[in-house]
Write the C-alpha cells for this entry.
Amino acid sequence: MSDYPAISFHYFDLRGRGQLIRGFLHHHQVPFTDERIVLAKDNSNWPVIRQNRDLTGDFQKLPFILWGDTRLNEVLVILDFLDRKLGNAAHLNDLDWLQHRQLASSAFLDLLVTCINLIWSNVFHPQANLPATTAIVKKRMQAHLITMNQTLEEWDWIRKMADRPVMASDAVLWEALDVIRLTFNDQVRFDALESLSVFYAECAGAESFKALLARKVMTITGRPGEAEALLVIHNSLTED
Ligand SMILES: N[C@@H](CCC(=O)N[C@@H](CS)C(=O)NCC(=O)O)C(=O)O
C-alpha cells in the first residue's frame, strides 16, 4: 500500500514555475495526479479557472498542490514542504538545510523566474525593448552564474550530492540551467563553470527530469507568441 495520501499537482501545461516540481515528484516516484490546466491561445479561459480555489488554491495562482488535506501555493514553500515530506531533510544538518533553502530560492528567483520574466517582458511592460532588456538580463545572469558556481564550490556541493537524495534545490537548479540554455540559445554559458557544468551533467535527478520532459514538448511560459519572442531574444544575442 502507498505511504502517500492522494496528491494532485495543478499547473499549466507548460514548464514555467511548475515543471521542476513535476520532475522532482517524478524522480522520487511519488504517485500524483498531474492536473494540467490548458490555456486558450489568448489565455481567455484563465479568469474563470482562476476563481475556482479548488483548482488554484488560496492565492488563486499556480502552481498549487494538494497533498491529502494540505493545500499549498508558492513554489518555495512547496519545495520546502516536499523535502520534509519525502524525508530528504533528515539527510542534512542545520547548516546544509539552510544552504539548500538559499540555493533553491536563488535558482528559482534569480535564474528561472528571471528567464520567465524576460520572455514576458514586453507584454507586461509594453514600452520595453526586448533586445535591450535581453542584453541587460544576459549580463546580470552571467555574473550571477559565476557567483553561484563559486558558492557551490565553497559549499562542496558536488561531493555532498553523492551522499544524499536528490533534493528540491537540485530540481530547481537543474530546471533553471536547462531553461537558461533555451532562453538564451546557449549564449549564457556555464560550461566553463566547473561546479555548475558538472552539476547539470551529473545531478542524479537529471535523467528523470529529461525523461519527463521528453514525454511532451512544452513552451517555457504561457506567453502568447513565445516562439516569436524567443526568436527576437536569440537574434539580439547574435548581434553582440
Ligand atoms: N509567487 C508565486 C507566483 C505564482 C505565479 O505567478 N504563477 C503564475 C503562473 S507561473 C500565475 O498563476 N499567473 C496567473 C495570474 O497571476 O493570474 C509562486 O512562486 O508560486
Remarks:
- The chain has a mean pLDDT of 96.
